[in-house]
Design brief:
The chain is an alpha/beta fold and 719 residues long. Helix content is 47%, strand content 15%.
Length: 719
Amino acid sequence: MDVSPILESLNDAQRQAVTSPAEPMLVIAGAGSGKTRVLVHRAAWLIDVVGIAPQSLLAVTFTNKAAAEMRGRIEALLGMPVNHLWIGTFHGLAHRLLRRHWREARLPQNFQIIDSDDQLRLIKRLLKSLEIDDSRWVPREIQYFINAQKDEGLRHQHLDDDGDLDRRQMISLYAAYAELCERGGLVDFAELLLRAHELWRDNPELLAHYRRRFSHLLVDEFQDTNAIQYAWLRLLAGDTGVPFVVGDDDQSIYRWRGARVEHILRFQKDFPAAKIVKLEQNYRSTATILGAANALIANNNSRMGKNLWTDGADGETIKLYAAYNERDEADFVIARLRDWIDQGNVRADAAVLYRSNAQSRVLEEGLINAGIPYRVYGGLRFFERAEIKDALAYLRLISNRDDDSAFERVVNRPTRGIGARTVEAMRAHTRANSCSMWRAAGAIASDELNSRAANAVLAFLNLIESMARETSGLDLQDKVDHAIHASGLIDFFRKDRGERGETRVENLMELVSAAKSFTPDLAEEMSPLDEFLSHAALEAGEGQADAWDDCVQLMTMHSAKGLEFPLVFLCGMEDGLFPHQRSIADPGGLEEERRLCYVGITRAKQILYMTYAEQRRLHGMDKLSHPSRFIAEVPDEFIEEIRPRVQVSRPVRSARRSKSSALQEHPGIRLGQRVRHRKFGDGVILNCEGQGAHTRVEVNFETAGTKWLVLSYANLDLM
């Protein structure tokens, strides 16, 4: 058998991973080292060389786009379709399982997926029905609490309040929310994963079937798995499965949404015979950029360790600019962008990255004034737009009259004379009779409402029923087209003569196009409409924006993960901004911020700029800033400082050197060190400057705030 098509493009480490025997494997794939290539070629190797049937592979990615790309590349490599290969996101695969085994999962056959906005609306309605003050019990905090518990695999009955009255109320609201979802056949995103885990846990025969079927598990971005995702994978693997997981502990930047970099270490404990391969050859960046990234991330203690390298050129030094303020910073960035464009380069090859979304405002103003087209990457996506969600709510009601969140969204949109008092009457009937809003509306229209309100409610109910009848025999795209017109949404938005109304009408028409191009999975036991609605819910929050034009890309560093650009700017490199103030005193948080900086640096292929402002107005406040400690962690050999023509402050290089000298002259003193002061209490060292007897440290005290202290007189106790 000629295996050269699979192996010839791989380096030694990649080839070792791809051709490994059928045993658990952990591939530590550095930035730009070809992790997707390894996953694709591993799948092709197993199918074409080992002889594993495609249906015996389960491949998990973190975005639908990545799943589609992986499937396409596997098929191109093998020269044949792999229709039976299960490949998708955790949520997508969980949804597929629940649709097939809805009875075992204790779900109605036509259960509906609700996205984050629908979930929040449901929680607000719950608070109102229970007459709970939403200024005291904030809906978003309740939403976060519920999802966090589900991500840990915990139902409300598993939780203890530990005598905490606030926690007791949260648990009570979790229970009430779960009951509401159960009654309406609603499944939120976190529930998809939890319910899929319980499906296997509580049905041993079903689990045994899937363990026999999926003998090989391929997992991408393993460092981003949360507790329930890892538990789901671990349960499926059992003692016989062969997990092949690919990740990078140095790129774990989603702790705030439940991701656990510790799973890489846990994997080695759960699978002690697992083989480890490190991919360290980088195919993206210059040697200078990689040297800076390696030096920076070496300051983290909780990592497996690797050293990125390239056989390419050294490239240009990293340019460091110390701006006077945020406007000077923006002017500098725009001037460099002009130079880049004037040299004939493509605007879309340049990216401006920042830690906080609020930083984009000044940059956007500057780009507009300079006439440079730009795009804020990660803006509102197609399925998240209000008008699209309105149309989908009508379609959800056509499919399932008991979908309360869809009912509430459109019962008076467009306005049809159904006021808040009427809706509240429906809710009261729903609570009293444990029924859906749809059934409550029909009941109260006949005996509780005045004639005007009753007629409005009955007209809405008749509208939905007539829409269901008129679309019953239509193709999917015709159903959608009929719904957006019959509902009155098109006419409603056309009344807005401005650009906003026109854009919304265009978006609704684009939904028809989306339905037309949607290909249902004929193997699934659900209608094309229900499958399309599930597809829309799963796609919300993914890359549904328009195709990239030739424009400069603006984005947060979190949004930049997985992308690469020839020219990159890292803006706002200041302590308190990056690393963020809330992470400085938390060792785990600080290490995650450093990983985020590592991700930012390794987005650059050829040219990298770092900028910081000595004074910045952000969130309405002016603040004097100190250069980010991450700048000081990059060796001098990789940095070239650029200052304005008129220097009004000390160059940052001297600050970086004096900081290093100060740390050497005072053993035990380091950035991030916890200390105790007899007057100010416990704190963390944020910054250090000066030399000898004049060395000063900036300490963030837990109760006294931030103070600059002379080390010789501070008498700090190390903790």
